[in-house]
From TrEMBL:
Key words, A-Z: Aminopeptidase, Hydrolase, Manganese, Protease
Single GO term (MF): aminopeptidase activity
Residue span(s) of domain Cytosol aminopeptidase: 308-315
Family matches, as SUPFAM superfamilies: Zn-dependent exopeptidases
This protein's name: Leucyl aminopeptidase family protein
Keyword S-adenosyl-L-methionine recorded: no
InterPro entries: Leucine_aapep/pepB, Macro_dom-like, Peptidase_M17_C, Peptidase_M17_N_1
Transmembrane feature ranges: none
The keyword Protease appears for this protein: yes
Similarity comment text for this entry: Belongs to the peptidase M17 family.
Signal peptide limits: none
Amino acid sequence: MTDFASLLQPDRGQPARRIHVVHPDAFAGWLGAQPQRTRTAVTAHRLTGKAGDRAVLPGDAADDWAMLLVCNEGQGSPWRIASLGAQLPEGSYRLADGEPGAAMLGWLLAQHRFDRYKKGDATGPRVLLTGEPGRIDETVRLAAATALVRDLVDTPAADMGPAELEAEAAKLAAVHGATLTVTKGAPLAQGYPMIHAVGQAAASDRAPRLIELEWGDPSHPRLALIGKGVTFDTGGLNIKPGSGMAAMKKDMGGAAHALALAGLVMAARLKVRLHLLIPAVENSIAGNAFRPGDVLRSRAGLTVENTNTDAEGRLVLGDALTKAGEARPDLIIDYATLTGAARVALGPDLPATFSNDDALAEALLAAGREVGDPLWRLPLWDGYDSMLKSSIADMVNSAEGGFAGATTAALFLRRFVPANTPWIHFDTFAWRPAAKPGRPKGGDALGLRAAWALLKGRYA
């Protein structure tokens, strides 16, 4: 893991090169106030002041220089100077005007690389100085949590199966003194039949399991975090085409988010009784794979007609939600790479967000706007609940016709959430199909910082 702590340092007046960040609307005024050598350099670079313009500016001494970046990102954007964090030479830097604030996060994440299989270029650290040292620790923890999500999602399924997810939870438990419980084999089949059914076709070293971690004072409000841990999804007997299976190592992105968020909760010692649940399975194909048309029993006692083996994530989440609800939590949050319908509706950047509590949903959306982690709420539309009707069981797992796919999936999950228990469901992509500053192509944390901001406000 990248040593993020070394990349942010308190500004005590130590030598550092300056970074000028100028908004396009302020560019002409800024340029007019600069010395002639700066104006000459800008002219030589043929800059017009549009967003993305950048130039190396001469300093007072022969070996002195500064950096100009024209940027239309607001002061609160984490990505305001992320492009420079990736591209500048090693050394120390400070903003010429003001403090980096939220942009410290993007500076750190721009220097993170997933290097398990391919070593990156050997570049030295770019250190950012800040006059707000009180923000350093929190920013470093957020960067580490985001990097954890990215690294787990980017790891191929051969090296990231149910056992490896269990190992990640065990590491987290060891660091924070939490209790880890893992249920598999016959107890899983008896107590969590839908988790067992989805994962039963996997090889024995990839056996399905429910991973649980508990931490905190039992007298504090109980917080349940659940992450879909499908470590690879073939689609089951409703097999995906090759193009649809190519990125399915990321189908455990929900588990990665839940692990990262649990780590933030424990590191900050929020006043909660944390209950982390990860149903970890591989949706494989074998002679004992669950079939379309099978009727599955759930931990909640509901029966589910399996109309699509590629709608497996909601099945494993149903049993995990039931277990979480048995302890009467104050709040349940689940993350899942659940539906293609959410991506069709909202694209890769906006996690589809559902909640059964309007005030809670508004607080979450506001938190996301505040920290630059945008979300979009979709409805738990009661009128579509009938789409889950089955003629032979209590419900189907996948509605016919393809309408409102993200909503009907969320409505399926809602049936396993206790009445009057506040609940948030993230249908997140956990993936970035094209690189942006500070955000490389591949696994990414979407909805993590918004939820963390909400939890801090609720339980700090």
